[in-house]
Amino acid sequence: MDQSSKIDKLVELQKLLEAGVLTKEELEEQKKKILETKENEEPESPSIIDSEELAPETSFFQKYKIAIVGASAIIIVALLSFLFFQKGQSSQNISNDSEEEAQSIVAEAEQDSIYLVNSVTEELHYIFCFKIQGEAVSGYAKMAGNSSRASLEGTIDKDRWLIIRVTEDKETGRFEGKLDSDSFSGTLFPPNGKETTSWNAKRMTKEQVNELENKVNELLARMPVVNENQQESDNYSFTGVIQGGDKQYTFTMSLGIENDGNVTGYYYVTNGENKPVELSGQVEEWADNLQGNITLYEFDSATHKATGYYFQGFLSIEHSELGRFAGYSIEGYYKNSDKINWPFTAQTE
Hints:
Layout: H1 3-18, H2 24-36, H3 48-54, H4 60-63, H5 65-111, E1 114-119, E2 125-133, E3 136-143, E4 149-156, E5 161-168, E6 170-179, E7 183-189, E8 197-204, H6 206-222, E9 234-244, E10 247-257, E11 262-269, E12 277-283, H7 286-289, E13 292-299, E14 306-319, E15 325-336, E16 340-348
Antiparallel strand pairs: 1-2, 1-8, 2-3, 3-4, 4-5, 5-6, 6-7, 7-8, 9-10, 9-16, 10-11, 11-12, 12-13, 13-14, 14-15, 15-16
Helix pairs in contact: 1-2
């Protein structure tokens, strides 16, 4: 080692001393080695231990860089695994929440159906069921105890003014009024410009409507109905009107109709002599249809001879609004050959 190299080494040692890396004893020992080194002879390489002692003090991060990097990698992997797990759990929860929400929406949509019930009598109730979507209203109308339904559609504005149209092939009525939380109050507009009437309905739940339907069905089951296979004679009382030119004649008629369609009975004019007049005649196809063309001939009650006058028309079955048998009606003409041909109508009492 030449003189210049020795000086450089000594200067480096001095810097290490000043930096606190070497103690004075270590400095002196190293100086001695450098100074004793002959020219062109390198000093003995220090051992690994010596090299670590001579190396400048490293920072904690530098000293444990590999360990820190490894630990960081493990932490990052663990963190990512945790995040992915949470994400999976979150996705599953979102999926479950979405499914539950969808089911809730369906259930809520069913619950959102509005039921209005207009009760006329114990067994006669009109039911309106509809949903509101924006300003549009749609649903159906029916009578309690009857499966037939009519279409219902309409509109509602921000003030809850409701317009409902009920149609069965054609419009059968229009309802307009205010829909409140527990009722509907408004006006019924019949078709063909007929006179309007006030109309009110009570709001009910689906469960209440079902209870009402069951109650009406029980009542209807106890109502007497016509027995189409009945073999005995049936007796019916009618009230009617004969339009005799400018004058009307009201009458009461009692008829017994046998299974084969033969008819016997009597009638009397209530705003006339009030004298009973015997009747005898026939209802065509009575056995099969319980209705048909009817001809009733007059007979003098004293002589039992035909008077030449007779009723001729059609005897038809009448039904209630619930579709049940409600009696009979006769519509036709009261005649005497070519002398008179007066229209008449009669209904069972």
